[in-house]
Task: inverse folding
């Protein structure tokens, strides 16, 4: 099984995305794979398909989290620095596997929740809900898979609830959770607190990028009464793009951050979209994958995140991921060097 997983990871690094392509890769690239794996006959696409369908995704998720943690430590040791730093933002977000749905279930595709380290740009863990679970349960599983000590967990309004706050605080971490109308009572309490606050500390920021002007303002107000475990403050972010109407967003946080910290943390959360989800879709074709039987969607999601982490570290940051994939496909030594990160 371990050999088959290494074959699938190697194939994913070269752009393969399906069981048929994994089998083709194992057959046509035997010369390079035989330097790592001893085999006489390449596995068939049915073999790869059966493995993906039957492999327990819970065990694969735990193995991936262990691999990502060891990967980060090894990178830190090789560079002489600590890769995972205190106050690093870990963005928690779910992503639908758009085409991995059963017949007649197009509106309900499976999803995977990922924890993304915004500084190192590594996916630290991922989990998919079972048929009896939802994204909230999957996010709590992800939290349980990784060490969050001294980190700052960010998430959207779906995950702004007591169980998430308690899970984060128990790991000696902080949280910054978006607060919207789905928590109506808390939202009203936050607005009332902000209205009563006498001149809270404020920071404003203006910048121009991608052909547009953006203005942002951050305010932080300590709470009088905690609304959930560890709750310490409310953050209000007001932003405006060009001449559009200002947009106001509220957040519940477990620490009284400075306004500048609040602005930086809330902006860092969105790196999960460009730094992980966009790469998975554009470069690793996650949304185009039609594997949908049994555990295949969840297991392929983990495979792609393993490949993404390896590709992230194979070259200097300015080398496009698309170029790294082509180099893996065209250069045997480069591919072996990339796979060496798994050891």
Result:
């Amino acid at each position: 099984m371990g050999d088959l997983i290494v074959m699938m990871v190697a194939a994913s690094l070269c752009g393969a995305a399906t069981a048929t392509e994994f089998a083709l890769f194992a057959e046509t690239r035997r010369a390079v794979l035989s330097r790592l794996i001893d085999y006489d006959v390449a596995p068939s696409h049915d073999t790869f398909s059966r493995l993906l369908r039957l492999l327990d995704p819970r065990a694969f998720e735990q193995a991936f989290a262990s691999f990502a943690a060891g990967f980060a430590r090894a990178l830190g040791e090789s560079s002489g620095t600590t890769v995972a730093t205190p106050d690093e933002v870990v963005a928690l977000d779910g992503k639908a596997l758009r085409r991995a749905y059963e017949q007649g279930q197009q509106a309900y595709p499976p999803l995977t929740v990922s924890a993304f380290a915004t500084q190192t740009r590594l996916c630290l863990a991922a989990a998919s809900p079972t048929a009896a679970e939802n994204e909230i349960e999957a996010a709590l599983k992800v939290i349980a898979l990784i060490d969050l000590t001294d980190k700052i967990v960010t998430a959207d309004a779906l995950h702004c609830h007591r169980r998430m706050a308690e899970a984060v605080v128990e790991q000696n971490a902080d949280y910054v959770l978006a607060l919207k109308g789905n928590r109506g009572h808390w939202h009203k309490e936050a607005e009332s607190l902000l209205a009563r606050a006498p001149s809270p500390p404020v920071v404003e920021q203006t910048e121009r990028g991608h052909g547009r002007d953006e203005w942002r303002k951050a305010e932080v107000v300590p709470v009088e009464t905690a609304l959930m475990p560890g709750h310490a403050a409310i953050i209000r972010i007001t932003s405006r793009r060009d001449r559009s109407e200002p947009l106001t967003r509220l957040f519940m946080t477990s620490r009284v951050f400075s306004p500048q910290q609040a602005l930086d943390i809330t902006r860092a959360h969105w790196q999960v979209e460009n730094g992980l989800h966009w790469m998975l879709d554009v470069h690793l074709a996650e949304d185009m994958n039609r594997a949908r039987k049994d555990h295949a969607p969840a297991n392929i999601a983990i495979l792609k995140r393993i490949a993404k982490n390896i590709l992230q570290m194979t070259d200097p940051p300015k080398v496009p991921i698309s170029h790294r994939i082509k180099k893996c496909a065209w250069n045997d030594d480069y591919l072996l060097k990339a796979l060496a990160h798994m050891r």
Q: What stands out?
A: The mean pLDDT is 89. The beta strands are 89-96, 111-117, 122-127, 152-155, 174-179, 202-209, 212-222, 233-241, 247-253. The radius of gyration is 22 Å. The longest strand covers residues 212-222.
